[in-house]
Amino acid sequence: MEDFQQLIDRWLFDPVAGKVIAAIVGLLVIYVISRLLRQNVINRFVTQNEQRRQLRRAVSILAYLVAFFYLVAIFNDSLGQLAVIFGVAAAGIAFALQEVIASFAGWVAVMLGGFYRLGDRVQLGGIKGDVIDIGLLRTTLLEFGDWVKGDQYNGRIVRIANSFVFKEPVFNYSADFPFLWDEITLPVKYGSDRKLAREILNRVLLEVVGDYASQADSAWEQIMSRYAVEDARVKPMVTMVANDNWIEFTLRYVVDYKRRRSTKDTLFSRILDAFDETEGKVSIASMTVHLVETPTLNVKIAKPE
To answer: Could you tell me the residue range of the domain that residue 14 belongs to?
Structure first.
């Protein structure tokens, strides 16, 4: 019995045993806190699935780092020397991994600042595309444009460092207002019935993009409640200007950010069909240069005297 009591006293007053017990208790506390953050806090306050996944990953990494430094602090007696060593090491690591640290900070800014989300159409670092993944260090885009005209995918997968959010502007086509203003211009011959032309253009606009205008109107009200912007016109609009060659009509309208090209195709098709039905009252203007014949040139060269 006395041997057992001596064993207990030795474990209780042994510095190494005390450190082991402190380490176990500390690791349990870190584990419980990280689990509560991942399972309760993040699930309650973060609604996006991708953001939840990324934040859980970040909390797990942070918990491992805290546990590592806690164990080092527990089992090292010379904390002053350890602080100096860690300070020098941290400075070297920060210099060598400054781009990695900036990218991680960019990821935090993206997650908390709402720069963009999965599925958004953005322009980052001069690259346009749809966001298909947001990693701790890089954002992956499915690129569109470049050699492909219009907002159409070209098939390239582009990975961009998250640090770009601190270096260049972030253009988001679909964040708070998932519509874009777009325009097309139509040249109409002088002598055409311009009133009839305007009526046709207004009618076609309402038929093709009228639904977008009603949806954009409610979305723009939310924009005005959040930002200091004016009450911009989202309804389709037709304006006219006369130049030396023809009457030019400009059609301005809002459209879904993913349907710009298909909407233009529908508008042009409907408008040209409607102009054809006017039997010449409204005609598209064009400039054609036709070289019929080259005149004969007689060249005489005078002989020097």
So the answer is: 2-96
Whether 303 maps to a domain, the answer reads no
3-class SS letters over the chain = CHHHHHHHHHHHHCHHHHHHHHHHHHHHHHHHHHHHHHHHHHHHHCCCHHHHHHHHHHHHHHHHHHHHHHHHHHCCCCHHHHHHHHHHHHHHHHHHCHHHHHHHHHHHHHHHHCCCCCCCEEEECCEEEEEEEECCCEEEEEEECCCCCCCCEEEEEEEEECCHHHHCCCEECCCCCCEEEEEEEEEECCCCCHHHHHHHHHHHHHHHHHHHHHHHHHHHHHHHHHCCCCCCCCCCEEEEEECCCCEEEEEEEEEECCCHHHHHHHHHHHHHHHHHCCCCCCCECCCCCCCCCCCCCCCCCCCCC
Q: What is the number of structural domains in the chain?
A: 3
In this prediction the pTM is 0.61
Q: Which residue has the higher pLDDT, 22 or 259?
A: 259
Residues 260 and 208 in one domain: yes
pLDDT tens per residue across span 249-293: 999 998 888 888 888 999 999 999 999 898 888 888 876 655 566
Task: Please check whether residue 137 lies inside any domain of the structure.
Answer: yes
- Tell whether the model's pLDDT for residue 232 goes beyond 90: no
